[in-house]
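Q: Got a minute? One more chain.
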Amino acid sequence: MLHPANLKELSEAQTKEYLARIGINLAKDAPLPMPSLTLLSQVLAHHLLAVPFSNLGIHLPSTPSQTSNLIPLRQGIVPPLTLPSLFAKIVTRKRGGVCFEVNALLHAMLVSLGFDAVLSPARLPFNQSLPLKWRPDTWHVVVLVRGVEGRDWMVDAGWGGGGASVPLPLEDGATGEGFGGERFRIVRLGDVQVEEWGGWALESERDSNVSDNVLESMKVLCRFGAIVASLEDLKADYWDAMTAPYRYQPRQLMMYRPDGIGGRFTFSTPKKEGSNPNAFPLGDDMSESGLFRIWNCEPLEGHYRAVKVEERVLRGLDECLPVWKNYFDIDAFEEDPFHT
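A: Always. Here it is, folded:
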C-alpha cells in the first residue's frame, strides 16, 4: 500500500519527459513501463549518469555580472523544494541538484511509474570508529522502494557518483556495487536510536581503510529507515542544509558527476571555514578560482581508493562555464522561472 504522501504527482507526459532527460526514450504513444527490478536498476543508473550533484542554484545569480569575471558565491536563491520547481530545474533546464532535490524528484518519478516508494531522511556519522556517533539532524535523504520481486530496496542518487549504482536490498549484509566495482553494504542497526533515526546503515569500501570500523574497514555513509517523510516534511531540513554556516552547501560551490566506470568529475571553489554562524558572512561573495578534477576508482589493499588523474585550476567564470557544460552538462545562465 502506498504511503499517503505518495500519490502520483507527475503526469504520464512528464514522466516520459523525465525518462528522456536521463536517456530512456519511449515512443510518444507507448505506455509507461511496468514496475520491475530491471526497470528500477535502469532508472537509477541512468539518473546517476545524467543528473549531477550540484548546488549551483544558491550561488549563481540569474544573470552574469557585467563588471566582474569572478565566480559568484551565495548570490542565487534556495530553489523551492516543490515538484514544479524540481521538475523545471532538473528536467526542463537540465540542471543538477543536491541530495534532497535529486532524490525527491527520483522518488516522484518512481511513484509515477507505479513503484511503492517512500522518502527516508538519513543521518551522517560524526566518526568512523566504535561506538558510532550520529549527527542529530537530517543531512541526507534516500528512497526506499517496497515489494519489488518480493523484496524491499534502497536507491540513492544523492552522492554525486559516490554511492551504489544499483538498488540495494534492505537486508542485513546485502551488498551491491558502484560503477567501478566498489562494494556497498546494508547493515541492520540495533541501538536505542533505531525507532527515531532508522534501523539501517549504508557502508562503503570506497576510500575506506579504517581498521576498527563497525564493518571490517567499511566506511559508514549514513543511517536511515525509520522515519518516512513527505516532501513537505523535508523542507525545514533542506533549508538548513542550504543556508546554515555549519553545513557544506553555503560554504562552497560544488559539482560531482560519475563517468560510468568508477571515476568522477568534480568541481569546487575553496571552502569557507568555520562552524560559528558569526565566523564568516553568508552574504554575497566571490571566488577567484575553482578546482576541476578527474578521478579514477582503483582497488587498493582490499578497498577502493579515488585516484586523481587530472587537476586544473579554473580562473574566473570564463574558464568555468565551458567545463561546467562539457563535463556536467550544465548551462549556467539559462532562464530560471524560479529566480523571479
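A: The chain has a mean pLDDT of 84.
Q: Perfect, thanks.
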